[in-house]
Each structure stands twice: as structure tokens, then as C-alpha cells.
Amino acid sequence: MTACIAQTVPSDSSVRIFDVTLVGVNPTTGYKLLMSVGLILIVLAVRQGLLMLGRRTLRGDISDYRRFWARQGIYIMAAVMMTLGLFSIWVTPGTDISTGIGLLSAGLAFALQRVILSFAAYFVILRGNTFGVGDRITMGGVRGDVVRLGFLKTTVMEMGQPPSVARDDPALWVNSRQYTGRLVTITNGVIFSEPVYNYSREFPYIWEEIVVPISYDADRSSAERIMLDAAREHAVTDEAAETALAGMRSRYAMSEASLEPAVYWRLTDNWLEMSLRFVVPDRGVREVKDAVSRAIMNGLDARGIGIASATYDILVRPALAPRATGAQEPGP
Questions:
Q1: Global model pTM greater than 0.85
Q2: In this predicted model, what pLDDT tens digit does every residue of 48-97 receive, in sequence order?
Q3: Which of 106, 166, 282, 287 has the most CB atoms in a 10 Å sphere around its CB?
Q4: What is the CATH T-level fold of the domain 96-201, as seen in this structure?
Q5: Domain limits of the chain?
């Protein structure tokens, strides 16, 4: 007599394998499982097809807001279809699953709390206009341009930091706001615990400073004029910046701010520290500062004004004469 490997028990329609009853597994459950797998495959195939259609239809750069919103809409639609489909397959009329759903929900909420937090942060980012694809931000200790925004994570093309903060973690080898070549992935939930710095959302400009130390006996007025001329030639002083600043004042309680270059003096023990403050666009800061620095150096050289630096006096003591033979040793 050959034993049956798998069979169903008529009384409860359970599936048995090697005379072992599989709890909760019956033909109905298997049918629902197959339906679920088929639904998932169909939704994923439809989503992939719509993404390909969107790429061919919209074309353009991937950072184009039209492609971004089309991709986000397809993802959301696929997620909603999959959720509703699975719920419809597994929850049938007359099925008492309230207790099971409660326990399952509690377990999932505890195990996936970070995932749920990041998923909720995704809608906060979109609804609150915190940032979008193409914005330059600092988030979770990472500075760079947002290249992708997903349901759970944000991908940033990392860039370097100015020398004043170059020692901060993580260590960087690019001493300016230029790409390092690393893609950094950050969970969206970070926005609930850390600040997000946006460099380009509503005011795509930042204020920069160049500090030049000169000696107290130098021609200070000429040095200041040279610095201001260099800033006016290469920094931002156009109407677009004025319009952006006026828009910021209309939306936020901002104090008065000037876009005109200015030089501020600070007295030190060794030299006069002259700080040039000017406005630059959110991108290409290094090029602008390089042009301003070159113009300042050329102007100072033409007027014979040098850059002050710390000096040290070194005192050299003469060598002691050799002691005569037989000379009496000095006392203690």
C-alpha cells in the first residue's frame, strides 16, 4: 500500500503533506496565493510598461519635473492597485479576520516603524515643498544635489565642502562645492529629526565672503575699492536676484538684506582683516570666488599692497667657548 504524499482532509479541507496537516493551508488559500502572485506580476509589468512609455513620450533630462511627477504618479498608482487587489483577494465576505488584522497591524507597525516614518516623510516632503529633484540641499549630514526622490529614500550626488568645514564628518577630499562622484542614499525620515538646508528652492543665491588681511600701514581705502570692484565685476548684482529676494520677503518675515557687495573691517593684533561679502548663484560658487580672488590679487599687486602674514623673530645664541684644561669646575 503506497502512502499518499499530499492530500486534503475532507472535514476541514486542509492540505496534508506526508501525513502532516499544514495549519491554515487549504485549496482556497492556495488559490488566493496564486491569484496574489499573478496580480503582483501583472501590476509590476504594467508599471514597467508605463515607465517606458513615459520615457519615450516625455524624453528630455531625467531631472525634468514632468518626468519626475509622471514617474511618481505611476509608482503611486501601482502601489494603490496592488494594495486594493491583495485586499480584495484575501478579504472575502463572511471572513472574520478582525483579530488577525489587528495583531498583524500591530506587529508590522512595530517592526516597520522606520519604514512607515520614511514613507510618511515622503508625502511631507512633497506637500511641504521641502525639496525636489534638482535642488541642492544638506540633509542628514550630506551636502549635494537631489538626483532621485523615492518613497523611502532620497539619493544625493555628494559635493565637497568649503575649507572652513572640510573637517566635518564624513571626511571629504574636495574643498569646495563641487561633485565628489559619490551617490549617497538618505532615508526620508531624517527630516523629522534633523534640519534640511535648501540652497536653491526659492532663493537660488547664497552670500559668500573672502577675507583679506593687510598691514595697518597699507593703503586701506585703495584695498577696499579694489575688493569692491572685483565683486561688482564677477558677483551677482542683477535684477533676477532682486526679484527673488523680494519674493522671499513677501512670503517670509525676513529682515532687510542687501545684495550689494560690502567690505567689513576687523581689528586684530597683527593686521587689519577686511572681509568682502557678496552674492553668488547656488551653482558655480568656486568659479566666481576664483575670479574674484584673482582680480583682488592683481589689483593689490598693481597698487603695491601686500597681504599681511604672521612673522617670527628667531634669536640665535652664540656657541660657548671650550673650557680650558684643568679649569676648576663651577660649584652647584
A1: no
A2: 998 888 888 877 666 677 788 888 888 888 888 888 887 777 766 655 45
A3: 282
A4: SH3 type barrels. (2.30.30)
A5: 6-95, 96-201, 205-302
